[in-house]
Amino acid sequence: MLNEHELYSFKGGLEGGQSDVHEIPEVIIPAPGGDDGGGDDGYDDGGDPPTWDDNDPSPGDDGDDPFPSGGGEDPGNDDDTSDPEQHNLPQPVPQICTQLGSTGECTMKALDVISKFFGGDAMGIHKDDFAQFVGLNNPGEAAMEFLINPNGGLTMDELNGLVDEFFTNTDLGGDTASIISHLDNGHPILATIIDPATNTGHAVVIIGFNAGTNMVTIANSLAPGGVETIAYNASTMVNQSAISGFQNNATVNQYRNDSNDWWIGCGMSASGEVIG
């Protein structure tokens, strides 16, 4: 409340003076905060509308600050629109090399993604090391097996033996809870998709899973762009191995220290020449 003496002083008038025109015995400025006129001097009693922080109760956290931190946004809204059911690897996988049609090189492409994910390139581990481990000792032999032989590629036993020797891994058996757990922990999952019509297999790498929609995201050397999301079917996506890193053994040390790498790029010609 301001009396007229205080009002004139506040407005710059003569102290103690009074206007002949504006005789104001008393000016009342309603205190914001929803005062109900009960003589509580502006105490915020929850009336409508509160307009500034009256600092009561102390220390002013009664929620009536018109300028809250964050520009007045709801502090409970973090604008996170991600799907809580989606589980992806914590970091992206390297681009998978595109597979030539009607060839058997899918295992090399899938293993290459996993190797690079764990720093295989920097270690000196490449596709030729995997090929040499199964007895394909030069580009010509590898090209004959993976590119020319119509039924070429690794057998399931060869693939599993290679994985066990090079990588620390866990067999999953198709359990979705295990898939989610390993993805959350940064473990890409090597798997084989079986075509029931031909009983042939195609190696892929599981990099994401949605528990709500039962959709699985895979790095696939035959997919446009190298990544696709498909419905998960445990009966056709088999031989799942969650990879947690490289082994520390004589085999890995042997191939990481060799100096005759010949399959570092994505593809080979029919003669075995590295072309990319």
Automatic annotation (TrEMBL):
Chain spans, region Disordered: 1-98
Residues of the Peptidase C39-like domain: 101-220
Compositionally biased residues, Acidic residues: 37-65
InterPro entries linked: Peptidase_C39-like (IPR039564)
Protein name listed in UniProt: Peptidase C39-like domain-containing protein
